[in-house]
Design a protein that fits this description.
This protein is of the alpha+beta class and about 100 residues long. The chain is built from 1 helix and 5 strands. Helix content is about 15%, strand content about 40%. The protein is globular and about 60 Å long.
Length: about 100
């Protein structure tokens, strides 16, 4: 009986101890990214286009977006995207930031 109670306790406490890269079932299912566009190209695997961006920590991610309108190399962007383990990540909101001087 103690083993079953301990297992239930561990199962219930797992989201509290999850690290920052672990999906804990958040209701929004969205994540944020701030960075600079490093490449813009078409993605033959799905309709639309993809691009890559790098943040200040050097982390590079590939994103999927339905239109490249106004998106250029070296643009600074703030993104909200659907959290996923598959790339490219689907952008749900994009905001263009002022260029750094």
């Amino acid at each position: 009986m103690k083993v079953i109670l301990f297992a239930c306790f561990c199962f219930l406490m797992n989201p509290l101890f999850a690290g920052p890269d672990v999906e804990t079932g958040s209701s929004s299912g969205a994540d944020h990214f701030y960075g600079r566009v490093t490449a813009v190209n078409s993605n033959g695997n799905r309709p639309g286009v993809s691009f890559t961006a790098v943040n200040d920590q050097g982390q590079i991610k590939m994103f999927y977006i339905s239109s490249l309108k106004d998106l250029d190399l070296n643009d600074r962007v703030e993104l909200t995207y659907k959290a996923s383990e598959k790339f490219p990540l689907e952008v749900t909101r994009i905001r263009f930031l002022n260029p750094q001087k």
